[in-house]
């Protein structure tokens, strides 16, 4: 019995010793793991700090080289830009490899993982010769576009302002057709073979880095963790297509009536399509320049905003100052001294200096250098563009305190939406009255209702008319990058999509010897375009949210949040996030939504849509139309 008792005591003692040993071992293991995690955290943190600073310096170099090239399209500047890009690619390849290895570390913080994912992104081919070709072709494509000119009436015209002004003002279908064709001959047609090789090389790089193709790489980089993006944008388009069809059908009938009366020799299509050269824009992406033809109530005199700007003494400089004052009235930033000293706000006068006039905003990544490049004219379109580009600058300044990898928008659509959100307020009747560009007329309720429909039509010609083009440019490229569209069908499929989505046809028969997508800057510059489609919806969500913050009551389209610090605070808090949070989280902070919604867009335009449906009476669409194609 004593032996049994001693054995029991011994067992208990052994159990206690084992338990204590196990406890001590577990504690030591926890300490080891904690120390290891701390070493990893320290290593990753120090590495990220170093790489963010190195990246900042590289982006500063690239920005200055890009600025120098785009404001002087010389061969010397092109070579300098290419060299910087190639040198950066070599640095980036090492950075990508190291970031990819560190992503495998256990226990990374959410922030560290997010930064590493951004730094591990790459689409450049690893072969140095292929990389050199990518940069060379990119430069050539941009040079072809930037140097594009058209001979007309014995004069050499550049896109801005010459050709653009004629598209805005001319109603002669022969003149417009001539300009339309010559611009595409001067640009896209010269790019066709280059673009085919460019796609092949870019896809090679994308495949090397684990993407299905360049389109997949683009979508994953611009919209992180949104694998359903293709379906999202298709669903959004299908929600809005009925609105577009109503606008298209109304505009078509107005144009048909106008040309039958004023140009009876012009054969307007009877199949429901609209000739693309008659819509007041080189790409038929915005139709506001034909407002005089399609105005719902022409008996209600609408002020000429372009004339009003000039009569009020506006020039390019004070248009920019007015835009700055709007942003500061919300509690946002003033432009830095460098902006006013070195921005290119008008086309340079030197005859031997070619520039890229496409409006752009530049962040030079040194916290005090931000600029805009554009060839501004005094008109309302440019006044809106100024607010758009300055919106980019405000975003740059708001997130400049972030690590370099986060010095970007929540997604590209956010960046494009900011200035346009402000422009919605700027274009409101209330704000135009504040600026003295519109008189506060004493009119009847009926006349005001008609005037509101006219106003919404003008806005729809800018916003609603753009949506199918904003969608199809990248949908076409996604199909090109995936191989679904082969080079021998580039142009044919382009026009099939232009017809399917926009309901427009070319003024003359086209062939696959043409390359009409290249006549658009963003194709030549290899810039994503789906971000603009997203931005045109996001801006109405942002606008609605800021209007609510400002205390606005009444129809959404009447809101002006000028001088509302509450609206500005809501916007600024989102801008300061930069790319540090998922775009859905940034959207939720700004609007309370976690997805892109069409409801604010519909709400804004609903009175006009009701008017259009009543006018069209079901006579809508272009189902019987075919592309204007030259058959062999």
From TrEMBL:
Glycosylated residues (UniProt): 153
* Residues annotated to bind Zn(2+) 2: 388, 392, 416
Residue sites binding Zn(2+) 1 per the record? 388, 392, 416
**CC annotations in GO:** plasma membrane
Q: Which residues form the signal peptide?
A: 1-19
Task: State how the cofactor is bound.
Answer: Binds 1 zinc ion per subunit.
- Name the catalysed reactions: Release of a C-terminal dipeptide, oligopeptide-|-Xaa-Yaa, when Xaa is not Pro, and Yaa is neither Asp nor Glu. Thus, conversion of angiotensin I to angiotensin II, with increase in vasoconstrictor activity, but no action on angiotensin II
E.C. number: 3.4.-.-
The record's keywords, sorted A to Z, are: Carboxypeptidase, Disulfide bond, Glycoprotein, Hydrolase, Metal-binding, Metalloprotease, Protease, Signal, Zinc
The answer to keyword Glycoprotein applying to this record is: yes
The record's active-site residues are: 389, 522
SUPFAM superfamilies hit by this protein? Metalloproteases ('zincins'), catalytic domain (SSF55486)
Q: What S-S linkages are listed for this chain? A: 357-375, 547-559
Origin, by domain of life?
Eukaryota
Question: Would I find Signal among this entry's keywords?
Answer: yes
Q: What biological-process terms (Gene Ontology) are attached?
A: proteolysis
Concerning InterPro entries, the annotation shows: Peptidase_M2
User: Which family does the record assign?
Assistant: Belongs to the peptidase M2 family.
* Family matches, as PANTHER family: ANGIOTENSIN-CONVERTING ENZYME
Q: What is this protein called?
A: Angiotensin-converting enzyme
Q: Which organism is it from?
A: Magallana gigas (Pacific oyster)
